[in-house]
Amino acid sequence: MSEPLTPEERGRLEGWLARTLGAAAVRIESVRRLAGGAIQDNLGLVVTIEGGPRAGRHELVLRRDAPSTVAVSRPRLEEFALLEVARRAGVPVPEPWCAHADPGLLGKPFYLMARVGGEARGARLVKDPAVLARGPELAAELGRVLARIHALRPPLPNLPFLSAPADPLAARIAELRAHLDGLGEAQPVLEWGLRRLERARPGSGELTLVHGDFRTGNLMLRDGRLVAVLDWEFACLADPLEDLGWMLAKCWRFGAVERECGGLGPREPFLEAYEAASGRRVDRRAVRWFELLATLRWAVVALLQADRHESGRERSLELALTAHLVPQLEADVLDYLVLLEGEGG
Amino acid sequence: MSLPADLVDLLETARLLLRERIQPAVPAELRFETAMVANAMAIVARAAAGRLPGAAEAAGLRRLYPEEADAPVEALRRRLVADIRAGRLDAAGVHLVAHVLQPRVRERLALSSPEYRTGL
Questions:
Q1: Does residue B40 sit at the A interface (CB-CB below 8 Å)?
Q2: Which residues contact A37 (CB under 8 A, 6 or more apart)?
Q3: What CA–CA distance (Å, rounded) separates A258 from A261?
């Protein structure tokens, strides 16, 4: 794999950072590519800043668009604006530092944020003794944080790029069908799930900021406590139940299926804490419908990822194997429909 | 369509060597990659042993659309998807799930992840 930054890019970045941060000089001590995200190009930087308000040694993350991007993923500068809004609303996020729109500097727009220490990998967290010891408390903590995100309702003048769909569920279903049409291969189980969802029309009737990828894997934990909500690239205005369903869906439990809140803790403390913090009453059955939506959405994303490999755009065994997750998601779709509607619907 | 047994055995023997001798010795930063290679080999080994999906779903589709018994499966699947979206099968859920969708999922799981525990 190539060097994450060329010497020229490194020099330009140091100069720009010094000007932006009002520093006498900025030195990049080290750069390394961070694991994570099939979509992102994330670099871990250690910088020493001389002079100015940020003087000292800092660990930062630089996020820049990767060569291939998913159509539904937001540009980096919008993600930066989302981080700023979330931080002001009291949501734990990595502190956003500065952003740069001009692709001349590093080839793509990018931003920098503080690096938060901890563990986000789902496979590790579901076996972490600190997580296991406080599952119900952790689930409640996640519910309270989600309530803070959902307290942000339109109009949100600092996030002018977010559009407000008149019917968020219909918009989501249309979006997933459009992706399926683009992929070409007929997907009868996913289509059946979408149709049942369309007929049932579950929803809270509310429209709020929704994180869009609030799940184990995007939550940075330390000692079994949440320290930061990561990866805001799918944030949008939608039904807040979308985030609840995404967090609780069977497909995001990393093998720990019995702990229904992302493999980390139980379902009810999560929902009860969310209700207490948000003042909303959550319809438990509607949440199940949104878990079905989550399963369908992940299945479509998995097909899109596999297509990146199959089309030759980005050859990768990880992307290729994603196609083989889809049958599990299809099984989940049918199981959710049995739960919600009985055999066959 | 299945491969001759000795070729299936060759792949399976290679996969076991990878899993039992090589995987435990690989450095931590390559463990995920090695597990992916073993998984890919296991999928191909099952396919080579004849566990390719399609037959049961196809039978269900032909039963659903008896007048199109000679049409290719993908054409029937496309018709099914169009009928689902248009709501023409809204009342036929029990039949559709039992004869087409469940068999499809069972076959596909048998290839991709036979150990998956269904049920919520």
A1: yes
A2: A231
A3: 9
* Paired tokens of B61: 């589709």
A 10 A CB-CB count for A223 gives 12
Minimal-distance CA residue of chain B relative to A192: B84
Six token digits for residue A112: 């920098």
- Three-class SS state of A28: strand
Q: Is B36 on the interface with A (CB under 8 A)?
A: yes
**Interface with B, mutate which of A179, A195, A260 (most B CBs under 10 A):** A195
Measure the CA–CA gap between A143 and A137, rounded to whole angstroms. Answer: 10
Distance between CA atoms of residues A294 and A203, nearest Å = 14
Task: Please answer whether residues A60 and A47 qualify as being in contact, where contact means their C-beta atoms are separated by less than 8 angstroms.
Answer: yes
Q: A339: nearest CA in chain B?
A: B120
Which chain A residue has its CA at the smallest distance from B37's CA? A317
How far off is chain A from B51, nearest CA to CA, in Å? 14
Q: Do B36 and A195 touch (CB under 8 A)?
A: no
| Pairs from A91-97 (Cβ < 8 Å, separation ≥ 24) | A91/A145, A91/A148, A91/A149, A91/A229, A92/A145, A92/A226, A92/A227, A92/A228, A92/A229, A93/A228, A93/A229, A93/A230, A93/A232, A94/A61, A94/A220, A94/A228, A94/A230, A97/A21, A97/A60
> Sorting pLDDT into bands at 50, 70 and 90, what band is A152?
very high
| pTM of model > 0.90 | yes
Cβ–Cβ < 8 Å for A113, A59: no
Unique residue bearing structure tokens 């001798």: B21
One-letter amino acid for residue A179 of the chain: H
pLDDT in tens, A93-102: 999 999 998 8
Q: For the CA atoms of A253, A255, A256, A262, what is the dihedral angle to 10 degrees? A: -10
- Tell me which residue of A30, A27, A29, A3 sits closest to A15, measured CA to CA: A27
Instruction: Kindly list the residues from chain A whose CB atom is less than 8 angstroms away from the CB atom of residue B116.
Output: 327-328, 331
State ipTM. Answer: 0.94
Single-letter amino acid, residue A299: A
Taking the C-alpha atoms of residue B6 and residue A173, their distance in angstroms, rounded to an integer, is 48
Instruction: Please name the residue that has the structure tokens 């931080």.
Output: A87
Judge if the upstream peptide bond of residue A103 is cis by omega within 30 degrees of 0: no
